[in-house]
Design a protein that fits this description.
2 domains; nucleic acid binding; alpha+beta; 28% helix; nuclease; Putative HNH nuclease YajD; two-stranded antiparallel sheet; HNH_nuc
Length: 126
């Protein structure tokens, strides 16, 4: 069987070539990250995002067609997501509280959620 081609190490500043599957040379193999969830994530329906949510979301987006964050910046962008202003974290009372909903476009929703959940290198907010 032919050998896999050599590739540069993924470590910052390292120019060594390797054939390792993890992307790092032998000297930087410890930098390879593996992510394992503490517990498996429930399905979206089990987390409350079933048919009833889909219907409520569609109605909310019809009544609120523009992204609130973009509007605050003077831009006009169509909303595509209903965001929980305060994360509900499984609290169904807070989940269904319409005063806790806001209409956001995809990029604004992704940025807000990543900031809350620790994405993009941010620390998780509690």
């Amino acid at each position: 069987m032919p050998m896999r081609p050599q590739r540069p190490c993924r470590a910052s500043g390292c120019r060594l070539l390797h054939r390792n599957a993890n992307g790092y040379c032998d000297a930087h193999a410890g930098q390879a990250k593996s992510y394992v969830r503490e517990k498996p994530r429930e399905t979206s329906t089990a987390r409350g995002y079933g048919y009833k949510w889909q219907q409520a979301r569609a109605g909310f987006l019809i009544k609120n067609p523009l992204c609130v964050r973009c509007q605050a910046r003077g831009r006009v962008t169509a909303s595509t997501d209903v965001d929980h202003i305060q994360p509900h974290r499984g609290d169904m009372t807070l989940f269904w509280d319409r005063a806790n909903w806001q209409a956001l476009c995809g990029p604004c929703h992704s940025a807000k959620t990543a900031g809350e959940d620790g994405g993009f290198g941010n620390n998780r907010r509690n």
